[in-house]
Amino acid sequence: MTIAIVIDLIDSLTNGSVMTARRFADGLKARGHEVRIVAVGADGEHDCPVKERYVPVLTEVSAKNQIKFGKFDEKKIRKAFEGADIVHFIFPFKLEKKCKELADEMGIPTTAAFHVQPENISYNVKLGWCKPFNSLIYAYLKSTFYGKFDRIHCPTSFIAQQLADHGYKGELYVISNGYDPAFVPQKKKTVNEKFEVVMTGRLAPEKNQQVIIRAIARSQYKDRIHLTLLGNGPLKGKLEKLAAKLGVDVTFDFLPKEKLIAKLQSSDLYVHSATVEIEAIAAIEAIACGLVPVIAESNLSATKQFALNEKSLFKDNDENELAEKIDYWYEHPAERASMSGRYAVFAKKFSLDNSLALAEQMFADEISEYRARRLAQSADYIPRFSLFTR
User: Fold this and answer.
1) Could you say which residues of the chain have pLDDT below 50?
2) How many CA atoms lie less than 13 Å away from 162 in the CB half-sphere?
3) pLDDT per residue over 292-308, tens digit each?
4) Which of 84, 132, 280, 377 could be disulfide-bonded to 303 (CB atoms 3.0-4.6 Å)?
5) Measured over all CA atoms, what is the biggest interatomic distance in the chain, rounded to whole angstroms?
6) Does residue 112 form part of some domain?
7) Exposure on the CB side of residue 225, measured as CA atoms within 13 A
8) pTM (predicted TM-score)
9) Residue 383 has what pLDDT?
């Protein structure tokens, strides 16, 4: 297949959705497909780079969360779409909306992925508590974008249910974003001077890393624990101040893939504190490396699906329960070693190869149905001929 992928930007290595799209595109290419990316920063042989679109105020706010907006260029994008079997959309912003209109005009089948959880928006404007506001965003996204698709890629059953609950009518394909097969357990486990706790994720309100810092401050093993928070974001300064105030030994970092894998492999425990999360590939990568996780049990997060027992869960934003779970895993190294192997095996069901096969099926379903519908429409058309001749 020739697959065009539209996403506002493709050159941010700190944005989870962007990294997912890059991994997805590379995987499709490896399986023999031609992939054309339409995005800011696109630089592949068949790609279509677009300029960044400036939106007053919003551009500045979005930049803090590693997001840029692409500018629609009909001439360039039309050329990129020519000969495409399908166009797949990652985000629901203006570039994608204009490209959807163009694809429809050109008679090209389309599918869309749901990666922008409304709560990601509301938590960043301090309205995460307001259910009507979140429902309004779901309704807006449906009426302006997702309602125009027959097939929607949902990374988890959780978000598929959210869409169904909010009246989305398209067929919902539950397909994990898939993790890179390079994330595997360490052959011989590192022995650390301190108990190494790690989390990967954007330093933003909905990720709630502050609860990890507060929990470690309450741990009876506080002085024997070192925390690493991997990621960038607007709350870095506040988290640094909180850790200093509470006397928690923490390192902030952002690592390329090879060093990230090494860090996960050598750590002792993974904590995922996000209140809002569509999937969390970061958590899958960690358990694929054999790390036992402790995950926030939030009604707005799908990540709790990766917990194999109650010892890997804590009540969302409950620093006391999280401290208890961290202490438990500190005190039970043999059980942690045993569960490490179980988690590494469990992670394989979310492999990238499995996800790509399911995505290919979604694309094939859409192409087949779209062509059948077009054929039926043309067959229904019967030209009218005049019975009178001059």
Assistant:
1) 385-390
2) 31
3) 999 999 999 999 999 99
4) 280
5) 100
6) yes
7) 27
8) 0.88
9) 55
- Nearest 5°: the CA angle 353, 117, 81 is 60
363, 239: one domain: no
Closest to 204 in 3D by CA, of 66, 378, 44, 33: 66
Amino acid 219 reads S
Q: Alpha-carbon distance 227 to 198, whole Å?
A: 6
Give the CATH number for residue 285.
3.40.50.2000
- Amino acid identity for residue 260 in this structure: L
Provide the token pair at 221: 């093993």
3-state secondary structure 270-328: EEECCCCECCCHHHHHHHHCCCCEEEEECCCECHHHHCCCHHHEEECCCHHHHHHHHHH
- What was the pLDDT predicted at 122? 80
pLDDT for position 382: 54
Distances (CA, A) of 234 to 1, 59, 121, 127: 40, 14, 14, 17
- The C-alpha angle 143, 145, 148, rounded to 5 degrees, equals 85
Residues 6+ apart with CB under 8 A from 94: 53, 69, 72
Token couple for 326: 């961290």
The verdict on residue 305 lying in a domain is: yes
Q: Are strands 48-49 and 313-315 parallel, antiparallel or unpaired?
A: unpaired
Q: For residue 151, what pLDDT is reported?
A: 98
Nearest Cα to Cα of residue 149 among 114, 115, 121: 114
State how far the Cα of 368 lies from the Cα of 156, in Å rounded to an integer: 25
